[in-house]
Amino acid sequence: MPLHKKMEFEGKDVAEAISKACKTLNVSQENLDIEVVTTGTSGIFGLCRQKARLRVALKKEFSGKAEEKPPKRAAKSKSEKVKTVEKKKEKAAKEKKKADKIKPVEKAPETVKEAAEDFVVGEDLLAELKADLGQILELMHYPSEVSVSADNENVTAQIQGAYVDEIVGQNGKILDSLQYLLRKIIAKKYSEKAIISLDAGDFRAARTEELKQLGLELAAEVKKNGKTRSIPSLNPSERRVVHLALQDDKDVRSRSVGEGLFKKVLIYRPGSKGKKGPARRRKASKNKK
Prior knowledge:
This protein is of the alpha+beta class.
């Protein structure tokens, strides 16, 4: 590539992009012609961040010097090449003989017992989580009281206040979206493993009981008439509640179907594979008649 042709470099900011350009082209910044395409943005809470992008080329007065080719080295004769190869072979043979003479000393395997330590989430992560959640709620115009607690790697953020119903949303959709956003924000800032759960008021406990009852009621209907029933749009933890509620019932099965974070749960009789088959078969038999 000609040295006067512009190349593109990226970085978290303009300074980092310039540093990359200097290292790649092996020149100082004074010898570069720099065009800033985008300065980059820090995003919000570390998300949606955009990198700085530059177009860089060597300055004309410097590129002429850089393009001057150094004199070529005189090519080695065939005899010199053969001698070099033979020397390398002799050296490798000597090293192999030395290695064969030295016998490795095998140490007796040591059993090291390490005390299992409970994983503890750092105080700075908890403080960051509390601050970020509080700021998000302020931006939503739902200022609330936020408390954060940790049990090993499980972290619970609790919201209390006058706007609990608005924050929860229909069937907890807004609360689930906030929980997903918080997990992404913290994962960007911290490498340590933390399973973050977000609750508002007593929504999670009430929702768990509601889903258990709904699953049992639909399972009773399936056993009565054989028709497959479904619960739409549940997040992973809610789907787990339904599956656990029905796992000991040998007369029905449950499975999740769909794509993405929210999936529906089918409840059906064993052998029907979760399809609404009986009604379709009856229609087909009528058509044959």
